[in-house]
Amino acid sequence: MEVDTLRWFQLVADGVTVTEVSDLEQVSQPAVSRALARLEREIGTPLLRREGRVLRMTHAGTVFKRHVDAVLHELDDGVAAVQQLLDPETGTVTVAFQPSLGTWLVPDLVTSFRARHPGVRLDLRTKEDETMPAVGPRSGVDLELSTLRPHRGEDQPRWRALVAEPMRLLVGPGHRLAGRSRTALSEVAEDPFVVMTPSSVLRRHTAQLCAEAGFAPEVSFVAADLPTLRGYVAADLGVAVAPTLWGGSVATPVRGLHVLGLTDHGATRDVGLSWAPGRRLLPAAELFRDHVLERARSGLLPTPVPPTEA
Q1: Cα 257 to chain center, whole Å?
Q2: Taking Cα atoms as reference points, which of 156, 118, 113, 122 lies closest to residue 142?
Q3: pTM over 0.85
């Protein structure tokens, strides 16, 4: 059962003559008639009957026509949707990102991209589990903004670094280091720590930095998000390691929170863009990827802020 035959049946059923269908579709009249006859044989019953020079639908034809209309309508919508995806200026890009990047990096990228490509729709999704890649061969996510660097391998997501974000030490108002501007992480080796949940990459990064400083942090409280973490520290419930733009002036001020620079080597987190190697990116997604990478190469991404006291 061919799509062209269904369209010819639809036209004839709507009152267009076979001759007019022949002229419209640029095929011979006998070819149209043979196609309609084949369709009736496939269905197993006459769909059209002749009344003079005009073909009318039989009862079976009337029933069949409703389904043909629905099928062709869905098919046309599907073709239009694919064409929209293939047009880089009207497609949709699905981007996953860590919540901590939603206050500074994501707004910058979205605003700058839409200024140049207003017709592209961006489907933005925050990640619940930051320790697992959101992109993959069968994932519905095109691109991912994350501090999670994938393992090397042919089937692993491709990853490009965008910016290195310095990490800071957060201490409360009653802490002995509250008046300092910089410190080494080893100076708080005996302090209780406020950390993120195990599904956070920051939790893993904090443990790694402490291990490199020669100790394992004693966890006092676990926070589900960065604002809560900052609130716990401001209440003197422990110290914490946090990324710059959340520990500095970009974040909502928290009374009593002090932000210290870390002198430890590697006290930064790399923010990168990743995508699945086995999943073909549609043109709109390639357009956004190129925009992000070019913005990073040109040094146009937001710059880290220095340590401040909130």
Answers
A1: 33
A2: 122
A3: no
